[in-house]
Amino acid sequence: xxxxxxxxxxxxxxxxxxxxxxxxxxxxxxxxxxxxxxxxxxxxxxxxxxxxxxxxxxxxxxxxxxxxxxxxxxxxxxxxxxxxxxxxxxxxxxxxxxxxxxxxxxxxxxxxxxxxxxxxxxxxxxxxxxxxxxxxxxxxxxxxxxxxxxxxxxxxxxxxxxxxxxxxxxxxxxxxxxxxxxxxxxxxxxxxxxxxxxxxxxxxxxxxxxxxxxxxxxxxxxxxxxxxxxxxxxxxxxxxxxxxxxxxxxxxxxxxxxxxxxxxxxxxxxxxxxxxxxxxxxxxxxxxxxxxxxxxxxxxxxxxxxxxxxxxxxxxxxxxxxxxxxxxxxxxxxxxxxxxxxxxxxxxxxxxxxxxxxxxxxxxxxxxxxxxxxxxxxxxxxxxxxxxxxxxxxxxxxxxxxxxxxxxxxxxxxxxxxxxxxxxxxxxxxxxxxxxxxxxxxxxxxxxxxxxxxxxxxxx
Length: 460
What we know:
Blueprint: E1 12-15, H1 22-35, E2 40-45, H2 51-64, E3 68-74, H3 77-87, E4 91-95, E5 104-111, E6 115-116, H4 122-132, E7 144-146, H5 148-160, E8 171-176, H6 182-195, E9 200-205, H7 223-236, E10 240-244, E11 251-254, E12 260-261, H8 263-277, E13 282-285, H9 291-299, E14 303-306, H10 311-321, E15 325-327, E16 333-335, E17 341-342, H11 345-358, H12 362-372, E18 379-382, H13 386-397, E19 403-405, E20 410-413, E21 417-423, E22 429-436, H14 440-457
Parallel strand pairs: 2-3, 2-4, 3-7, 8-9, 8-10, 13-14, 13-15
Antiparallel strand pairs: 1-5, 4-5, 5-6, 10-11, 11-12, 15-16, 16-17, 18-22, 19-20, 20-21, 21-22
């Protein structure tokens, strides 16, 4: 029995031809069908070169175990999520490596109700079955059902319920799909909006799916990938811009000046919007940057709940607390009315409605919070011994801290600034986030200070 190295903490990810190939995909597909004793499994794929064939191999494995396959074709992860709930399938699989390098691929998997897999129970059981390759006998092979049109129609119908289209004013929006999977879905949403007489104009860049990713891997968190979107917003005098990662479950925003907006400010806007619609609701967020989010939740009379970073954990906490919305500063946004799943399309629709109804620009909407709580954005440090490096920082600063929190990594608060340090689960990286109360220069000063401490640890 050969161990499969593509199984990670919450999903499947690996180097093409080394960690993952068509044979492995077949085994994983069959293992999923057997583990869930599935009647139907929804399968979609992103724009990577190997994704269509990997999806086909997974489908063969699923069908060989007697389960039917609902083929939703080229799609985003959130389209797979909704297909599982809409069509009542026993599981869903999206072939994607999201924003990873071009030589990677993998899968995101959910079970019935679009619920995430339990990493210790479900994912490990599927891994064991895929490695063992001992299959139960079946009565007959499953069938392949092409439902990509029905799935997209159902998805668009669902996300449109989040907004009142009649309130939308004439806006120009720049959309950077990064040559990933977002383009065709955005086109379908645009058509639906047009049919409903929404006066929106889209300026589309890097729109066509292209497995060569000629404009770079679709990862809007990379500074070099932000410049083009911001420039086009300014050139086109657009109202705002949006950019997607490869499977478009994350959406990133640029204001009317082309400035990239860190996601805590978008989380704040969306939290405010939901709390206005449902006063007293619960909002889940991760602990990396919190002061802006907590301030808005408090002002709007909501209840904030901290969660460790990661979609499995946030979705579970949202379900447990019946939270209406959840957000991560990595630009994942989760919605109770979307099976508690994350979506990259719902956020920009909500922001479009908000800008239209408020009569204010996106930059103006975040300006107060931007001044009140400046932050550093997430900064990565390549550190060979992350545990020792983080300990060095903690030992140096713990006596001056007003509070210490270990929800995710280590968070330390002081009178007028705060930081969070986390080590990566998969790489020798330490991730730093710093925020302050109204002092941008203090943020920069503390970035330099903690960065120096981290680098010092490498010489110890």
